[in-house]
Amino acid sequence: MPDRIDQDDDLGEGPLHGLVVVDLSTTLPGAQATQFLADAGADVILVEPREGNRLRANPGWPGLLRGKRSITLDLHDDTDRATLDGLLARADVAVTTLRPAAAARLGFTAEELAARYPRLVAALITGWGTHGPWADRKGYEALILAKSGVLHSKHQLTTGPDPAHVTTPYASFAAAQAAVHGILAALLEREESGLGQLVESDLVTAVGAYDPYNWFYELVLDRFPDAFQPMGAAFDQQGRPQTKLLYALLIAATADGTWLQFAQTAPRLMRAWLDELDLSAELADPRWDGFPLLPTPGLRFEWWNKMISKVGERTLKEWEEAFTRNPDVFGEQFRTPDEALDHPQLVHEGRRVVVDDPDLGPVRQPSTLVHAAGRPLTRIRRAPRLGEHTRELRTFARSTAPSNSVAQQGRCGPPLAGVTVLELGAMYAGPYGATLLADLGARVIKVEPLDGDLIRTIMAFPEAGGAKVLQGKESIAVDLRSPEGLEILRELAGQVDVVLQCYRAGVAARMGVDEASLKSVNPDLVYVNAPGYGIDGPYGSKPAYAPSIGAASGVSVTDAQVVGRPADERDQLLGQARKLYAGGTVPAVQSDGMAALGVASALLLGIYAKRRGIELTDIVATMLGTSTQALIAHNTGYEGRPAHPGVDPAFRGTSALYRMYPASDGWLFLAAPKEREWAALVAALGDPGDLADDRFATSRARAAADDALADVLTKIFATRTKAEWEADLTARDVGCVAVTQEPAERHMQGDEFHAAGYTVDAVSPVFDAHRRLAPLNRFSRSTTKPEAGCTVGQHTDALLRAIGYDEARIARLREAHVVR
After folding, report:
1. DSSP bridge pairs for 353
2. For residues 653 and 660, is the Cβ–Cβ distance under 8 A?
3. Which end of the chain lies in a sparser environment, N or C, as judged by fewer CB atoms within 10 Å?
4. Looking at residue 407, what is its pLDDT?
């Protein structure tokens, strides 16, 4: 499919047409949230200072700011403040990324917003939240990743146990999508009450959404330390495999230099994989008894090396022929973010577009995150020039505002109360999107096979694997292969608002649960597809795992910094394979979580469009599409695009003023990259000493002497503990945290994070009282509904009774193994 085909079609106005959004944000999460709204048809008004939004310095600004209108305002000027007041009075949504104190000075509080703009849905995206002990700190992405433990979870990008800095904007993208969820949920509530409210999301809580199951793995290890042997890191300190997953998720280079990510995770797929590699016969040797659980590091390394060598015997073309011949074997190519837009599936779906820019020329970028009716939601429009629409927007701000005579605001229930979602899918990426709606008050009915969703048994401790993704849901276990089971499903579909299906291309139709089939039962359904690759196309039937999507989208390469041809020297090649593994398979942050966040956005968009009387068909949000969307700042391409700051070879950071340093007892992360932060940093460090050198007198000079500045700071920070530095620097409003050196999923369950509100208490039928991640949004009026998980078929009888089945009929179905 040509790049421009979707741009030339008349795509309509989009499901959010008519909504006015005032964008006051200046950082990535705000830009990505309002970009989603603009892509869906909203009129996004970008309010910029005279010197321009600092996001314009981001190489990806043409994608981040696309489809918006720009007005320049000086908010210290009374006339310009009056213009902003006029814009807000006419807006449906406002978004800001100010810190809480600055937001309050602007009047961005629940009380003042309710008094002045009672219908306005106002989204506040912060780094640390608004109520905890860290609320007033600077919210740089790396500080959140360092404090939460994500940088520790990425430590195998380095050769030792030290944390590793990565540049994929995990926390920013998650907070952006969380803001989208909160905005759409609050708009839905407004349809009933006529009232707006303040919606908060933060980077800390949002980054916790990525992990699919390690949260409960760490919980079990804490409660029952002798229950089973911890897996530990994927590789030991000598670079030898420590887990059987290294064979199923093998990363290896072809003979002609293309890295491939395999995902042979089921026993059947592993057998086919070993046959394809001509290694099955070797397993008869007693040395390999117990495979894939081999007893010694030496044996594990030898087998891993052997598999890598076998892959390297064939060219990419030969492997592609093998994938066509043998559908049980598949490897995804590792791509850079730019190369990802050439992926055959994205090209087929029209998920890349070229926008003509009068100054930059052709700008290539991803299309909308959500597609409907086989196309993007809207025609992508170019990013505005600074202040391009100031005159017309000043006129708009003076126009007649809607009436603000509304009822007194008060607390209300969850914003999605009364919405019922029927979930058809397994594992994490799609189903956790429904979990996020359950937190917002939706009723989510999960349809499981009789043995339960596979994720329930993915870990050695029963139910730990699925405990997170099953939070807040009702489970019905039914055999959909039987006519009776399919009839139950159809009757359930007749009584719900939304169906979410996550199967590979063609599976839903073969099962009789596709959109047309279920809309014949319930014409008012919102039906959302959340596959890995797509509902059709060259990769639609391929298995989609987080590592595969990470490889295909550019996420893995962005983190691992492995580009170009594989190394010729064997040790270096194996080192590159380890880095690529750490880039895409670390559970704490990966493409499963990205996809889930996008699925929740797609579900809410479909529900809100329906409430507005807009019918969207074939709604699709894919793992691959969402992961490329998360990297829009990296994959928006045009001639002369500046380079993104790269991570140094030791994975410490991107510059001397945005990187990790060793303290006397561990690591700290310093984030002070702006010119105005330099003086505060020098003052906080005490005696300036070498920092007073002319080499560091200006920001340009510091950039030129970056290595020398890092050396000076290294000596200074080594003199005290990381906690002392964090306390002293944050007291002077300098971005600095002690780097957590334990897994993120363990650390975030601790007392410190619980007291800050990032976790809440829940009671599970399996785990009893425990801490779970807090909902991703806080509302000034609405409540949330954070609940624990459920057991297989826990609600089968109740759901069957609700659709008219009596006890005798239920008993017969259970005896016939139709339900559990």
Report:
1. 365
2. yes
3. N
4. 62
CA 414 centroid distance within chain? 23
Given this model, what pLDDT does residue 224 score?
86
**Which ranges of 631-694 would DSSP assign to H, the alpha helix?**
632-635, 678-684
Residue from 794, 725, 53, 146 nearest 447 by CA: 794
Strands 498-501 and 653-655: unpaired
**CA 490/CA 652 separation, integer angstroms:** 54
CB 723 within 8 A of CB 169: no
Q: How far, in Å, CA of 539 to CA of 151, rounded? A: 32
Residues 6+ apart with CB under 8 A from 600: 177, 181, 433, 434, 436, 437
- Please provide the size of the chain in residues: 820
Residue ranges of the chain with pLDDT lower than 50? Answer: 1-6
Find the distance separating the first CA and the last CA of the chain, reported in whole Å: 46
Please list, in sequence order, all residues whose beta carbon lies within 8 angstroms of the beta carbon of residue 56, skipping any fewer than 6 positions away. Answer: 65, 386
pLDDT value, residue 160: 81
Q: How does 648-669 read in b/e, with b if 16+ C-beta sit within 10 Å?
A: beebbbbbbbbbbbebeebbbb
Please, what are the domains in the chain?
A: 214-339+559-585 (no CATH), 656-745 (3.30.1540.10)
362 prior amide bond cis, ω within 30: no
- φ and ψ of 291, to 5 deg: -50, 135
Q: Among residues 492, 413, 490, 479, which one has the least CA distance to residue 452?
A: 479
Identify the pLDDT of residue 408: 65
425: nearest Cα among 500, 536, 323, 512: 500
Which pLDDT does position 705 carry in this prediction? 97
pLDDT tens digit sequence for 140-189: 999 999 999 999 999 999 988 899 999 999 999 999 999 999 999 999 99
Decide if 422 contacts 498 (C-beta within 8 A): yes
Q: Residues 508-536: pLDDT tens digits? A: 999 999 999 999 999 999 999 999 999 99
The partner residues of 354 in beta bridges, in order of sequence, read 364
What is residue 403's predicted lDDT score, i.e. its pLDDT? 74
In this structure, are residues 777 and 201 in contact, taking their beta carbons and an 8 Å threshold?
yes
